[in-house]
Amino acid sequence: MRKETVFRIFLVMFLCVNLAVPPGLMAQEANQGTEEKSAFRPEEIEQMVAPIALYPDSLLAQVLTATTYPLEIVQVARFVQQNKDLKGEKLMEAAKDKDWDPSVKAMLQFPDVLLMMNEKLEWTEKLGNAFLDQQQDVMDSVQRLRRKAEESGNLKTTKEQKVIVEKETKVIVIEPASPQVVYVPAYNPVVVYGVWAYPAYPPYPVYPPGYVATTAAFSFAVGVAIGAAWGGYGGWGCGWHNHGGSVNINVNHYNSFTKNTYVNANKYQVNQNIKNQNWQHNPQHRGGAQYRNQATAHKYGQQRPGGSARPTSSSFKGYDRGAGAGGAGRPQTSDLSRGGGRESAFGGAGKGGSERASSFRGQGSRSSAHRSGGASRSSGGGSRGGGGRGGGRR
Q1: What backbone torsions phi and psi does residue 322 show, to the nearest 5 degrees?
Q2: How far is residue 343's CA from residue 336's CA, in Å, rounded to a whole number?
Q3: Kind of pairing, strands 247-250 and 236-238?
Q4: 122 and which of 221, 302, 353, 390 could share a cystine (Cβ 3.0–4.6 Å)?
Q5: Of all residues in the chain, what percent carry a pLDDT higher than 70?
Q6: What is the three-state SS of the chain?
Q7: Spatial contact of 184 and 59, defined as CB atoms under 8 Å apart
Q8: 16 backbone dihedrals φ, ψ, rounded to 5°
Q9: More confident residue, 354 or 193
Q10: Within 10 A of 303 (CB to CB), how many other CB atoms are there?
Q11: pLDDT at 393 over 50
Q12: What's the rounded Cα separation, in Å, for the pair 299 and 134?
């Protein structure tokens, strides 16, 4: 009996040693499982999108794409603050040698919106992550919010904007009343959408500088005159009939914009044979901002072993992108409206929004200084740098 007991104990120990899963592998699988379940829920996306869902389609598309480059948002906002005396085309001309993504550089035409994105950097970063991972979910959320505002009687055609409700699809399109002037709406989401359906996820309090939230549903900032530097408003657009919605690029307007606002315009030109193209994220303009999960990082060539590694310029490879997974998964923080987000591409778990924003802006300073030096060194060879990349970067 004693020998049998000893044999059983030995057998159990042998199986434990030889068949057990290594602790590191278990942790790795647990992390991967967590990331697979981290899709944003519909109520979280509506919370993030609420402040901009009623923007004109072209401006909305431009803002959404620009949020995927949060480090450059910081750099461009600092440039605006350092050139307060310049406006419109003069400001754009002063930035002609800056190598920012076109969607971000175009925000110079809307400095109040740009400064809002810089001030609410945690919101900008999180919205950009949602747009990269779940683009169609974000666009669907925009339409749901527009319908709520329209049903509440707060979204109407005015002298500043045209609101078009398509009869068959019920898609709501918002356009500037005049193609020469764009009015940015300012509104209180709690008022304009009627009763908010998600008390645990109140709309994020994001407003242009100087806006005071009141009981008034809707107002407009001073109109922005779109000049020659823009090349015609509408380089970015919402393809609402493309599987529910996507961001597309009007090639004629987009190429005209890059031609007028870059020293090396060829670097940003897109295929002229296709008038409207789906927007593609350019990881080279992501800078030091980590992607939200391993799947997205891998898609754009950013290696994140253990979720902590920082990318280098040589690690950026991918250009194509696709729609993210659906909105199911574990909930993230519900107190985004109070600045209590748990995750950040720049700080990791546990850091507050203000701390991450400071770190972010510090990176912006270092990156901006580095780019300035690089621009001066490479200015003599501009034609060489852009010839072979046309159409790939945008």
Answers
A1: -140, 170
A2: 11
A3: antiparallel
A4: 353
A5: 63
A6: CHHHHHHHHHHHHHHHHHHCCCHHHHHHHHHHHHHHCCCCCHHHHHHHHCCCCCCCHHHHHHHHHHCCCHHHHHHHHHHHHHCCCCCHHHHHHHCCCCCCCHHHHHHHHCHHHHHHHHHCHHHHHHHHHHHHHCHHHHHHHHHHHHHHHHHCCCCCCCCCEEEEECCCCCCEEEEECECCEECCEEECHHHHCCCCCCCCCCCCCCCCCCCCCCCCCEEECCCEECCCCCCCCCCEEECCCCCCCCEEEEHHHHHHHHHHHCCCHHHHCCCCCCCEEECCCCHHHCCCCCCCCHHHHHHCCCCCHHHCCCCCHHHCCCCCCCCCCCCCCCCCCCCHHHCCCCCCCCCCCCCCHHHHHHHHHHHHHHHHHHHHHHHHHHHHHHHHHHCCCCCCCC
A7: yes
A8: -65, -40
A9: 193
A10: 13
A11: no
A12: 13
**Domain spans, the chain:** 36-377
State pTM to two decimals. 0.72
Tokens encoding 384? 């060489």
